[in-house]
Amino acid sequence: MRLKTLLLTGSSLLLVETTAAMAADVANPTTSTGKNTVAAKVASTAPAQNAPVSAGPEGTQAVQARSTQAYPDYVTVSAARHPMRADEIGTAMTIVTEKQILTQQRRTLTDILARQPGLNVVRSGGFGGTTSIFMRGNNANEVKVRLDGMDINDGSSTSGAFDAAQFVTDGMGRIEILRGPQSGLYGADAMAGVIDITTAQGQGRFTPFVRVEGGSYGAFNQVMGARGSKGKFHYNVELSHYRQDGFHEIPRYIGRYFGADKEQRHRGDRNDNRSANIRLGYDVTHNFDLGLTARLIQSNLHTYSAYNMEDEYYSRLGYYGDVGSEREHTTQNQAIVRGTAHLSSFGGRFDQVIGLGYMTSRRSWTETGTTLEGDALQYDPTYYRTSRIKIDWHGRVNLDKYGSLLVGAEHFHDTFNSSQGGSAASSTPFSTSAGMDTTAGYGQYQGNWNKILYGAANIRYDANSRYGNYVTWRVAPAIHIPHSGTVIKASAGSGFHGPSLYQLFANQISTSYAEKGNPNLRAERLIGYDVGVEQTLAHDKLHFGATWYENHVRNLIQSVSSYENYYSTYSYNNVARARMYGVEAYLDWKALDTLDFNLNYTWTHARDASTGQALQRRPQHKFNFNTTWQPVDGLSLSGNILYVSGSRDTPVISDTYQYCSTCGKDHGYFTIDLAASYKINRYVTVFARADNLLNRQYESPIGYLQPGRAGYGGFTLNY
């Protein structure tokens, strides 16, 4: 109740201050600048617009206050919930900018994240397949993903993990990846880290554009939009349609094992994605602004997987079912909306934001096709529905030379529903509905001593109506060695991940199996730390560093099963412990003003602490190299090399009938991608790219081929 009171108090204070600010603005209209002032509060003081706010280490450029929120790539917003230099906090992080996304022509969020240190991304097939993100060897559902301040982990999924499958990068202006436990600021699901996505903000003149792209696997993509500003109003609206048709995801050895005919060997997947991305803002006064963001996604995915081929094989042998031609069909409608009000008071000494967000997802899954006799299959879809309402407030007090103090509160209301009819002979109708509430409060102190020792420390309390109350914390110091360009970073903290509503309350019963939730599940817990060093040389043109990390996890939630009288029952228990440790290293070199080299390497050791076995889908080695070159004005070239070593996984076929999660091992993969674009004039840009140039055939995960050699090209029209 106290935290809810804090939320109401914060909103009341914002409204009172807003009324005063608006009255002052009316009395003195010349004080309104028509610019967004959020970005101007980068420093611990409130400087004049576009003035340097931090001198930084020797040889580095000062952070500039910017009204466009297009922060430099050495400024982080999410690490401490306000803009600051990335080297002034001990958090290990990676920042991806809109320019990098466009230069590399990465059209999906999956493709961008797969190339970042500390992450392993697996996707069941091509574009649109279920995507899991593993960070530092932790489970995929232990990574919190946020979009414009709204938490978007998928409450309709079994584990509550974020699925990047249908997220395209159009409109994304910035992606910040925070590695290590972040629950001290971000609560549940931030046990392994946070991926914070921000939509690009419009600024300047009205700038419309159209992009058309086509290529391999029946790809035909169109994007149109406009961004800019008019007086106090700024906007960015982008609409996209992506289509892929004809990609066959089943490896040849599986097709041979199940005796696939020619039609089965060429039966492909089809994905159709329509998205809208919107960001609007209005600067009411010089120190008060309103914002609204929205991302709407509608997708229609048809897949033909190894498990569908297996159904057809055993049906022909007469073991079970009557399946002649089978596919899986998934439709999804998702909406993410958030509104904010931001107020800066007392000359920038007190900065506060209140937000209200809503997310909903409606997903249906069924198997389509025909029977052995050619009749249509009559399976009822399984429906998964979820919604989340979030209200949050935080305020930051600038204490000048004594640092700053951040306090905040959040409240979430989550709902879940899963249901199915009973038209198929093998199914029994079911419906499961549940909800939960979480109220949280947090505080953080941040300061520095003589611009040598920087640090932040936070603590958070979460109260959940289903799985209890948890306290988490984090400290993240950074030491700057004067006149050397050397920064020593470290962090330590705790994290937790709560069970999903499905894991708590699932109740699906059929004629041959049952899935039942466990309402007594406890949250997973983690203690983690890391230490690293970063070095700057050659007048800020060469950056390199390395970080050692270690995590210890207990109360891991795992699926458990029992088998009796030909009937299987599946549920969940807190049964496992795990230990993960490894190294992340990077090197960034700006060889010329027009030539950049970037590489990163990740070594991961992730084991079940009870059995000593390697954890599923955690490769030990990962290497990524990227270079960007602009040889002449208007021409941009980019190349990327990605290597990922093999990892343990669940086999699709096994002569010994071992179907444990680590009985199989994939062979890893190595890919080369190239991209080029040329701006013919101010209106027309042409581009092309080649993915997986060497046509490597690889599975990630086992049983799901990833696209081979593919080429794409198109043009962009700007005004």
How would you characterize this protein structure?
Helix content is 10%, strand content 53%. The protein has a 25-stranded mixed beta sheet that branches. The chain has a five-stranded mixed beta sheet with strand order 5-10-11-8-9. A two-stranded antiparallel ribbon has the order 1-2. A hairpin with a 4-residue loop joins strand 28 (524-537) and strand 29 (542-564). The model is unreliable at 1-13 and 15-68 (pLDDT under 50).
The general outline is: globular
* Overall pLDDT metric: 88
Let me know the CATH homologous superfamily of the domain at 237-608: TonB-dependent receptor, beta-barrel domain
Count of helical stretches? 8
Q: What is the CA-atom radius of gyration, in angstroms?
A: 26 Å
Outline the low-pLDDT stretches: 1-13, 15-68
* End-to-end gap: 53 Å
> How many beta-strand segments?
38
Describe the largest sheet: 25 strands, mixed
CATH class placement of the domain at 237-608: Mainly Beta
Derived structural class: mainly beta
- The proportion of residues forming helix, as a percent range, comes to under 10%
Pfam families: Plug (PF07715), TonB_dep_Rec_b-barrel (PF00593)
Domain TonB-dependent receptor-like beta-barrel: 253-693
Domain TonB-dependent receptor plug: 88-194
GO molecular function, one term: siderophore uptake transmembrane transporter activity
Summed up, what is this model?
One of its GO terms (biological process) is siderophore transmembrane transport. The protein has 719 residues and is mainly β.
Notable features of this structure?
719 residues; mainly beta; Maltoporin, Chain A; 25-stranded mixed beta sheet; 5-stranded mixed beta sheet; 8 helices; globular; disordered N terminus
